[in-house]
Every structure is written in structure tokens, then in C-alpha cells.
Specification:
Blueprint (H helix, E strand, L loop, with lengths): L2 E4 L1 H9 L2 H16 L9 E2 L8 E4 L4 E9 L2 E9 H4 L1
Parallel strand pairs: 1-5
Antiparallel strand pairs: 2-3, 3-4, 4-5
Length: 86
């Protein structure tokens, strides 16, 4: 199982999400903890300036960006719509 830490930008943006999206995020996080590459998450590597980061889908519009820190540790870096986090 993964250990997840949340960066300050992620925490600030998460608080601003609509309540419905926050609830979906919690459900998706459970999938992520068990298998970060579950096909339902659409986990994918980012490119360019964010080439060290990955992202998974909360729903069609919202994404979580994160970094694998080594071992079973993950750092959530941001959350928001596609336009906000990419």
C-alpha cells in the first residue's frame, strides 16, 4: 500500500474544490492506494517542465498530479481541472 503526503499547493486547491469533487477524490484515492495504475484512474506521466510528475483522473474534468518519491511514498503536488494543473 502507498503512503501519501500532500504538498501545500495540493491542500490549498483541494479545499477550494466543490464538495462533490472532494468526495469523488476520496473514492478515487482508495483505488490509487491499492493500485496506482488501476485502469479506472487513467494514470499517466506528464511531460515538459513537469516530466517528473504523474497524474490520475478524478473525473472527466479534474486531475490529481503527484510524484513517486521512492519506496511506497507518493507526494500529491496539485489538484484541479485539466487547465489548472497542466
Amino acid at each position: 500500500m502507498l503512503e501519501i503526503d500532500a504538498g501545500s499547493l495540493f491542500r490549498r486547491h483541494f479545499k477550494k474544490l466543490p464538495a462533490e469533487i472532494q468526495k469523488k477524490m476520496i473514492v478515487r484515492e482508495k483505488l490509487f492506494i491499492n493500485n496506482p495504475f488501476d485502469p479506472r484512474l487513467g494514470t499517466h506521466k506528464l511531460h515538459g517542465e513537469r516530466k517528473n510528475e504523474w497524474a490520475y483522473w478524478i473525473d472527466y474534468s479534474y486531475r490529481v498530479t503527484f510524484m513517486f518519491l521512492g519506496g511506497n511514498c507518493v507526494l500529491y503536488t496539485d489538484v484541479g481541472t485539466h487547465d489548472q494543473v497542466y
